[in-house]
Design a protein that fits this description.
Strand order of the largest sheet: 1-2
Distance between the termini: 42 Å
Order of helices and strands: HEHHEHHHH
Oligomer: single chain
Helix content: 40-55%
Radius of gyration: 18 Å
């Protein structure tokens, strides 16, 4: 984003909101408690979103500086909200995401609830992890909301029949 601003492709830096799972909230806690991420020790990390599960995030200094430098915030979302975001995003956008990517959407909803985002704000949800990385969690998310997944046999005829129904 800094590069886009430097190139004149965007007119200002957007406010960044970092999202972590409630089960792996190192940066959220550091932000909320104004802790130094250079000296802060590792924290427990246990979440369904394994791609963002980190007791000591590798790029914690850059992440904290980016969020603070844009007058942003960090927030945590529970695993059930992360899992619920998977089928919601798939239905609304056609994008099939893994839990770590779904955390971004769940975080947007939490930011709205917490008053960090308003009705007139323009929002981009960066969700880059494919749901194919963690199909088991996607299946659990779909079942949790009471929807039975459609199973399609691996043939062109079966795909065409599923699309026609």
């Amino acid at each position: 984003l800094r590069d886009l601003a430097a190139l004149g492709k965007i007119d200002r830096m957007p406010r960044l909101i970092g999202v972590q799972s409630a089960g792996s909230r190192y940066l959220v806690d550091a932000f909320d408690n104004d802790e130094d991420v250079v000296t802060k020790p590792p924290a427990p990390a246990d979440t369904v979103a394994d791609s963002i599960s980190a007791g000591l995030p590798r790029d914690r200094i850059k992440a904290m500086n980016a969020v603070k430098g844009t007058d942003g915030a960090f927030l945590a979302v529970p695993d059930d909200a992360i899992l619920a975001a998977i089928p919601t995003m798939a239905r609304a956008t056609g994008v099939f995401v893994e839990p770590a990517a779904a955390a971004a959407y769940a975080g947007m909803l939490a930011a709205i609830e917490q008053g960090l985002l308003g009705a007139d704000d323009r929002v981009i949800v960066v969700a880059t992890g494919s749901g194919l990385k963690d199909v088991r969690s996607a299946m659990a998310a779909v079942k949790a909301e009471g929807t039975a997944p459609t199973v399609v046999e691996p043939s062109l005829e079966a795909v065409e029949a599923a699309l026609a129904s």
